[in-house]
Amino acid sequence: MNENMNNTNEFALDMSDLVVEYRTEDGIVQAVNGLDLQIEHGSTLGLVGETGAGKTTAGLSILKLVPSPPGVIVRGSILLDGEDVLKKTEKEMEKIRGKRVSMIFQDPMTSLNPVMTVEDQIAEVIEIHNEGGGKPLEKAREMLEMVGIPGERGREYPHQFSGGMKQRVVIAMALACNPMLLIADEPTTALDVTIQAQVLEMMRKLKEVQNTSMLMITHDLGVVAETCDKVSVIYAGRVVEHGTLEDVFENTLHPYTEGLFNSLPNLDDRKAKLKPIKGLMPDPSNLPAGCVFCPRCNYACEICAEEKPKRLYRNATHYVECHLYNEKNILEGGVIGK
Hints:
Helix content is 29%, strand content 23%. The chain has 338 residues and is an alpha/beta fold. The strands form 2 sheets. The chain has an 8-stranded mixed beta sheet with strand order 6-7-8-3-9-10-12-11, sandwiched between helices. Strands 2-1-4-5 form a 4-stranded antiparallel beta sheet, with helices on one face. Strand 4 and strand 5 (83-84) form a beta hairpin. Helix 4 packs parallel to helix 6 (163-175) and helix 5 packs across helix 6 (163-175). The longest helix is centred in the middle third of the chain and has 18 residues, at 193-210.
């Protein structure tokens, strides 16, 4: 049984008001702007948004791996089971990475060392954290079996595996020390649809077996529907809508969330045209003064360009940051699509 079940804190991850900047010669890039994320023990949160929204920077911040320079964590707190990782030294973080929190990176092709066998790479993680009872290679082969790869293939090198198999190896490595929190950064992007479904199903089962909490970073709402309990929609480094799957999928509030859903193919009407969100993500080194989504929003009004929207709650789990809403109409189900 996962030792993480014996916790005293409600949240595996509690991120509050995180601000991350990249300070370059050309100016300050505002990558993350007051980000709040919470993940209960054993649950999965989907972090959804376009490329450049700040999703990967948020994941790297949890591990204190934001490249510095130019990256700077300006303010905020990141609590892992109640402990603030931003106050930890590099030495302390080495004991936390891989053991209490692990990350599956986007591209398994570049995540693995091409000149080491896959079992040696998994065993290295186990050895660093003194797991596996003095038999790291044996434990590494067990982990390969757990993700559906025969243990004897551990002696092979990454180039001898297909893309889907490489991703399974990366997942085995991430789960080798039974982490409390798993960060999955677009884990199925490079895979075809069939392999993607297999990998997601495998991750879901392993998460249940190990009672691991998970942050699923993705741009794919289908992946969110398949794997997540709650979803945070991120735009220009800030959560603009958050709720349970039912909240966000059935009672969409933010125009950006609506735009993401409208960009998906309609399976009931194959001839229906896609409705992409107009324009591009704002330049993170020159964000708009008011609502950052204002230049692309079909519902924008005067106040949107001047004033940042406040956070309003539809219920205990569902909130939005948008000027379309006030205390009254948000309780009536909002105004999107009406």
